[in-house]
Here is the input.
Amino acid sequence: MDSPASYFHWGFILISMPNLLVIAGMIVLFAMALIVPFPHGKGGEDGRR
Amino acid sequence: MDADKPVMVPPVAAKPASWTLRVRQAIDRGLPMDHLLPDRQPYYVGSWVYVFGVITIAALGWVLVSGVVLSFMGPQWWHASSLGRFFNSLHFWSVQLFFIFMVLHLWGQYFMAGWRHGRAATWMIGVVIFGVSILTAFTGYLSQQNFDAQYIAINAKDAMNGAGIGAFFNVLNFGQMYGLHIMLLPVGVTFLVVVHVVMVRMRGVVKPIDAEGSVQA
Here is the structure.
């Protein structure tokens, strides 16, 4: 915990692995939110749920 | 022949003299209860993307609750006792969730152009919440009462002085940073979040953009 984080270095991109993992996780979560179907309740007659 | 008939002019509603009645009528028009606490949503709200904002508010709730406990008990407690460290961690990780889901909510609203149809002010208040939240988190890092806070303060002072605001926002002044962190800034964030949510409820969720780029009816 007290040791410095390892860094990902690619060209001009320099970012710590924890930050990179958080950003990657956010992108995966955002993509999943678009893909995974949302559970629908009983629909109304006016197209509302 | 119709010209001979008397013209029926609808009665004009008189402006109420009471300001409380005027305010009540304005609230009834702008924010009826079925908008404030809806039990059903349009079909296009059926997506996990719309959950990000709610999770952000839930995280803010945990931030506030754990922050109140920390401010009541003090730094010796949150550094030295196991329960204090638990609440310290609860505060820290709920802030992480708050920022992660606030940014996911921002991405979702950006790609669906959530500022359309009179919602520009709602979007802009969201932008201000984002900025004030960053300032709140920054003052929180300065208020930890450990070497990490000192390291951040010593390094940040040069940036503040370089920006010309060091005299008004002195990161080496713990009392100022702590006061901002536990009072003014959280009150500001919470107030703006309430305004943001009320504005969303007044106009409802923005309609999606269809494949041709026009708005669905």
